[in-house]
């Protein structure tokens, strides 16, 4: 047996004695509150674990619960009650979905062991700038997609991985983009900062990336936009309808890079 679907039951704990051959395990839409240490010790071939829509809290997940699951690369834990990033997550995880939880803090070492992550979704939690450590992402050198939307961030985080291709920070309380916050991110192709509190006289510097079009949902108050050295080859007439206060647009070398 490679796939087992136990979703939409009344489970309160991850059952023990699971088939050793499992690759995909559905446990979503239950009432699971706990993952004991030994409950998953037999499923060494597991690759996909779906635990969304349960009642999990970080402290109820044993830090050794995922030990030995060296093939587990996709974990869905969204719509739970997590207060922190759980300890002991698989070191080879590539996709980690923790949106719609109650995560209010990410410490310096909370993500340090997850160096193979390529997609991390922390949207719609309770994160604020002061409780997101500026070195929290330092080991995520393969991360391509980061979603921090729907939190309470006041400034774009510093120390973001330079490997990012997509950065989504919409629906926060951003009032500033610190100098250097996007420095060196030359693989970035998508950025979404819509529905924030970016103020008048604000400037957004997205130069030296790989953007192929003018980003949508730019802040209405934006006055200066730097898009030089991207891959933008055309600008549609409607590109700046939502930015009536725009005073300066910098597109040097954009088309030349796109062609070369």
* Helix vs. strand class: mainly beta
- Give the helix level as a range of percent: under 10%
β-strand percent reads 15-25%
What is the string of SSEs from the N terminus onward? EEEEEEEEEEEEH
Q: Would you identify the regions where 5 or more consecutive residues have pLDDT less than 50? A: 256-260
Distance between the termini: 51 Å
Average pLDDT figure = 90
Q: How many individual β-strands?
A: 12
Return Rg in Å: 21 Å
Number of helices: 1
The largest sheet has its strands arranged as 1-2-3-4-5-6-7-8-9
Overall geometry:
elongated
- Biggest sheet, open or closed, and with what strands and sense? 9 strands, parallel
Verbal overview:
The protein is mostly beta strands. It has one helix and twelve strands, in the order ββββββββββββα. Strands 1-2-3-4-5-6-7-8-9 form a nine-stranded parallel beta sheet, with no helix packed on it. Strands 10-11-12 form a three-stranded parallel beta sheet, with no helix packed on it. The longest helix is centred in the C-terminal third of the chain and has 6 residues.
Describe the structure concisely.
This protein has 1 helix and 12 strands; from the N terminus they run ββββββββββββα. It has 260 residues and is mostly beta strands.
């Amino acid at each position: 047996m490679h796939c087992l679907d136990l979703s939409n039951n009344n489970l309160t704990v991850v059952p023990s004695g699971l088939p050793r051959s499992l690759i995909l395990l559905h446990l979503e839409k239950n009432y699971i509150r706990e993952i004991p240490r030994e409950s998953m010790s037999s499923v060494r071939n597991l690759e996909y674990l779906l635990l969304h829509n349960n009642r999990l809290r970080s402290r109820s997940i044993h830090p050794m619960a995922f030990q030995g699951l060296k093939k587990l690369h996709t974990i869905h834990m969204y719509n739970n009650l997590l207060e922190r990033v759980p300890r002991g997550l698989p070191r080879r995880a590539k996709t980690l979905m923790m949106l719609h939880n109650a995560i209010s803090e990410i410490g310096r070492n909370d993500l340090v062991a997850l160096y193979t992550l390529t997609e991390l979704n922390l949207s719609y939690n309770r994160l604020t700038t002061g409780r997101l450590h500026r070195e929290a992402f330092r080991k995520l050198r393969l991360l391509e997609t980061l979603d921090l939307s729907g939190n309470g961030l006041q400034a774009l985080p510093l120390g973001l991985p330079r490997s990012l291709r997509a950065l989504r920070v919409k629906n926060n309380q951003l009032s500033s983009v610190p100098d250097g916050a996007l420095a060196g991110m030359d693989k970035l192709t998508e950025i979404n900062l819509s529905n924030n509190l970016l103020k008048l006289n604000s400037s957004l510097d997205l130069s030296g990336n790989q953007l192929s079009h003018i980003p949508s949902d730019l802040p209405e108050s934006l006055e200066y936009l730097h898009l030089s050295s991207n891959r933008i080859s055309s600008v549609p007439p409607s590109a700046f309808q939502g930015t009536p206060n725009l005073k300066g647009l910098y597109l040097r070398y954009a088309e030349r890079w796109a062609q070369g």
